[in-house]
Amino acid sequence: MAVLRPDHPEERYVLFVLPKDPDKEVWTGKRAGLDEAKQIFGADAAYSVEEIDTRIPKYLENVERLYYRMGKHETFDGKMLQWIERLRAQVRAGISAPTQILDPATLLHEHRLFKNPDEVAILKKAGAITREAHLAAMRTARPGNHEYQVEAAVDFVFRDRGGVGPGYPSIVASGANATTLHYITNNRRMEEGELMLLDAGCEVGYYTADVTRTFPVSGKYSEPQRAVYEAVLEAQLAGIEKVRPGIKFQDVHDEAARVLVKNLVKLGILQGDVTDLIAKGQHRRFFMHRTSHWLGMDVHDCGNYYVNGASRALEPGMVLTVEPGLYFSESDSAVPRFRGIGVRIEDDVLVVAPPTARRRARCSPRIFPRPRPRSSRPSADESQRSAARRASGGDGWDRDRWNRARGEWLRFGLGTPYELRLDANEAVDVTLEAPREEIYEAAIAEIRQRGAVEVSSLEGVGSSAKSATRP
Ligand SMILES: [Mn+2]
């Protein structure tokens, strides 16, 4: 247990830990103990958990505000209330008990929402491993194989590359299973002509990626599958295109939904005016979830989505998913051509500060470098870009800029009109978590190996993905 006492002259950060016990450690593994709690975890002081009952009440004496998360550990909540009650009884001895118990989550969750460069680096690694795992899945998914074999291929890559494992239960959904949003049974045999929807992200150092791809099991989209795939892809790219500081979280969803509904009308699935259809919620039969959520230590990470009742503006350092989808129930007789098709495409986007004027246009502070075209030597364009990368410390991340933005936020706190510090003329960049081109290039190679020829819809993907990064 950790106690933070910012006002204390020496012991500002105190840990209560299990003391060393050679007999117990034989069974349950090494304990840090009191000394290592200080060395490894940087505590100013460390005590045995057995001292909690005597020490904590002392810490609470004459303290006005206590930050403690109620409701997580019933037993400990009980203790805490008893300690406070005991202090209240000592009022005549001049000792006062805390008068306010505050939830530390309100502070901690805001910090977690904004990722610092170290956290971004970890997410970057999680994303790189996830990308590899999705490629492995594409190699494993084929008619006659089972969903769990694809899951095993994914899990192998996650662990083999040093990840903790899946950051959330992987959704490995073939055929109509893809229309069940949280399908995790993962035990069905894949058949010829089906789609595989894979929603799987690797966890690295407490942070998880969250990526979804939907690809044909036998290497070839049917006409209806292709139509749905392209409808979703266009919506996803449009959503990503929206992401920039100052844009409301809700705007990303609205844009993706608008494109989806436009495409549903084009496909003859819905009839009418796009705005009307959205207002009436007609699309929710086929697109029943939100487009985005915060991402970080939790797959659905903490952090407020609304500020003073309004959708929150995006700021540099935030990481969100963009994941529109279309799902046509197997039992939906109104859409005979599309029954049983489910497609979702999901990437993780880091909101970055607008590049400074000097580096504008060429420096893309994306998490993942765009793969270099195989055929050519580095172009003038690319050497410029790598020069900009070097200038910014190697990874294109503008630390100063980010720190400035962050500092401003800390100064003003919630409710600040975030747009004030945005220069509308400055360019903005977003980050694709898994470079789509590479995934699909590998997928196409795989598909070709299996003798399928129809790959045109995949080949279009690389070029359109480029529009996700504005100069
Ligand atoms: Mn997600």
Describe this structure in words.
The structure is a single chain. 38% of the residues lie in helices and 12% in strands. By secondary structure, the chain is α+β, with helices and mostly antiparallel strands. The chain folds into 2 domains: 2-104, 3-Layer(aba) Sandwich (Creatine Amidinohydrolase, Chain A, domain 1); 110-468, Creatinase/methionine aminopeptidase superfamily (Creatine Amidinohydrolase, Alpha-Beta Complex). It is elongated and about 80 Å long. The chain starts with a strand and ends in a 6-residue tail after the last helix. Bound molecules: manganese (II) ion. Manganese (II) ion (MN) binds next to loops.
Topology (SSEs and partners):
Blueprint: E1 2-4, E2 13-17, H1 22-28, H2 33-41, E3 45-48, H3 52-60, E4 65-67, H4 74-88, E5 100-102, H5 105-113, H6 117-140, H7 147-160, E6 165-166, E7 171-174, E8 195-199, E9 202-204, E10 207-208, E11 212-216, H8 223-242, H9 249-266, H10 274-279, E12 306-307, E13 310-311, E14 319-322, E15 325-327, E16 342-344, E17 347-350, H11 380-391, H12 399-412, H13 436-449, H14 456-465
Helix pairs in contact: 3-4, 6-7, 6-13, 8-9, 8-14, 13-14
The structure holds manganese (II) ion.
